């Protein structure tokens, strides 16, 4: 038994015992939901599937997944959970009961399983909580991971937990991966090769397309319907050092023609980013004011607004790719029919980037000079930009269907429907 595993198994019960008293240290927004963290969730009857998504992004996949599962079992009962409050809020509109997930300690997990009585557990992407898996094994609950992804770093981290954790991974009933690389890593982490397959990214099936009336959508957002729109989505600290020089290098006539919206990844970083923009020489307009012909950018720090901007965008710069963050999802703007520009740091989105590049639907700017050339091309040449946008949209259309493939595989392997 590894030291890391022994330490985790020792500390988790202690944390579980202390968790009820920890409510007083929770934030005001978290405190009313603390009972859910403690596993105090009940269902009126046996639950056919507990479906868990970590946060906002993973929760996108839950709606299509529930619909496909219901196609095979129309009367199935579900319990949805998320790790974050943002994810919980997204689950709220889907219909089935929803809650914050129980803490990974024996006491909260035991309460949750006793109250919800799930017959199987479906995890989205990479939510391998040891005490969840231990409890599922003890109670004979089959566990499937869908839209599964795993980084090299995660493989090494899980390896430190030793053979005991590897046995839990080996006991998974199904691992349905986003890419071939993900499948190889899951198998390296212990997943059964015969129950591991590639189906694609389930979130792609949930992505909305372009706004049906782009002009109307821009007006609703307080934008000029007649000027093209560039959206810098999921902006992270440090990225403007690459973006600002490229923007300022554009001819003044090009900059004056375009309106620009920047949406921070985290609202709490909005002030820092606007200060960074000012220091980098970017004209930063008032928050949430329409971007003017003076070249000032609009900054919108509200949660959940990025998709609305993508839906009416002509071009999107994907954040998290111009500083070493690993990248955010380029498929989201591509699904809306926007031309896509990506920085050099996109390892976490490698499969989506490869698909877009192969179709001609994206440009990767490896440095400041390359970004300046790319923006000059796509902002200044309407035909080139339109071709890139059309290719991006077609690429995403070809990737849809992962949810149906995943559920079909679960049915083949006897995981679903509930029997």
Quick structural overview:
By secondary structure, the protein is an alpha/beta fold. The chain has helices at 3-18, 34-37, 56-59, 62-72, 85-91, 106-116, 130-139, 152-159, 162-170, 180-188, 203-206, 214-220, 240-248, 252-257, 270-279, 306-310, 331-335, 350-359, 368-380, 382-399, 402-412, and strands spanning 49-53, 78-82, 98-100, 121-124, 143-148, 174-177, 196-198, 229-235, 259-264, 298-299, 315-318, 339-342, 362-364.
Strand order of the largest sheet: 3-2-1-4-5-6-7
Strand content: 5-15%
Radius of gyration of CA atoms, rounded to a whole number: 23 Å
Q: Give me the CATH superfamily of the largest domain.
A: 3-Deoxy-D-manno-octulosonic-acid transferase, N-terminal domain
Mean pLDDT: 92
In which range does the helix fraction lie? 40-55%
What form results from the Cα inertia axes? globular
**What is the CA–CA distance across the termini?**
36 Å
Per DSSP E runs of 2 or more residues, the count of β-strands stands at: 13
| Number of self-contained structural domains | 2
CATH topology of the largest domain: Rossmann fold
Largest sheet: 7 strands, parallel
Q: In terms of structural class, how would the helical and strand content be classed?
A: alpha/beta
Low-confidence stretches: none
């Amino acid at each position: 038994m590894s030291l890391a595993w022994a330490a985790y198994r020792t500390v988790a019960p202690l944390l579980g015992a202390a968790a009820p008293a920890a409510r007083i240290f929770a934030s005001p927004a978290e405190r009313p939901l603390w009972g859910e963290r403690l596993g105090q969730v009940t269902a009126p009857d046996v639950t056919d599937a507990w479906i868990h998504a970590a946060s906002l992004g993973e929760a996108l996949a839950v709606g299509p997944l529930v619909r496909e599962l219901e196609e095979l079992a129309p009367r199935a009962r579900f319990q949805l959970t998320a790790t974050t409050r943002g994810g919980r809020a997204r689950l709220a509109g889907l219909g089935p009961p929803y809650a914050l997930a129980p803490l990974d300690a024996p006491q909260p997990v035991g309460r949750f399983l006793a109250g919800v009585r799930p017959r199987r557990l479906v995890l989205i992407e990479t939510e391998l909580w040891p005490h969840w898996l231990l409890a599922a094994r003890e109670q004979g609950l089959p566990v499937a991971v869908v839209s599964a992804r795993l980084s090299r770093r995660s493989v090494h981290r899980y390896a430190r937990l030793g053979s005991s954790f590897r046995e839990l991974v080996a006991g998974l009933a199904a691992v349905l991966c986003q890419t071939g690389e993900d499948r190889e890593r899951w198998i390296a982490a212990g997943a059964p090769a015969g129950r591991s397959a590639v189906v694609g990214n389930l979130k792609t099936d949930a992505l909305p397309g372009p706004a049906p009336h782009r002009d109307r959508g821009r007006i609703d957002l307080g934008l000029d319907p007649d000027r093209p729109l560039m959206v810098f989505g999921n902006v992270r600290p440090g990225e403007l050092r690459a973006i600002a020089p490229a923007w300022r290098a554009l001819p003044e006539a090009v900059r004056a023609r375009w309106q620009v919206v920047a949406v921070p990844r985290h609202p709490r970083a909005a002030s820092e980013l606007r200060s960074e923009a000012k220091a980098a020489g970017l004209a930063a307009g008032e928050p949430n004011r329409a971007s003017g012909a003076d070249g000032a950018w609009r900054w919108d720090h509200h949660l959940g607004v990025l998709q609305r901007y993508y839906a009416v965008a002509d071009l999107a710069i994907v954040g998290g790719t111009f500083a070493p963050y690993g990248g955010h999802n380029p498929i989201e703007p591509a699904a809306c029919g926007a031309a896509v520009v990506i920085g050099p740091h996109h390892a976490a989105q490698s499969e989506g980037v490869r698909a877009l590049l192969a179709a001609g639907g994206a440009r990767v700017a490896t440095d400041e000079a390359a970004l300046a050339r790319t923006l000059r091309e796509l902002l200044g040449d309407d035909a080139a930009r339109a071709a890139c946008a059309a290719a991006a949209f077609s690429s995403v259309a070809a990737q849809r269907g992962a949810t149906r493939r995943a559920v079909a595989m679960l049915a083949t392997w006897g995981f679903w429907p509930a029997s």
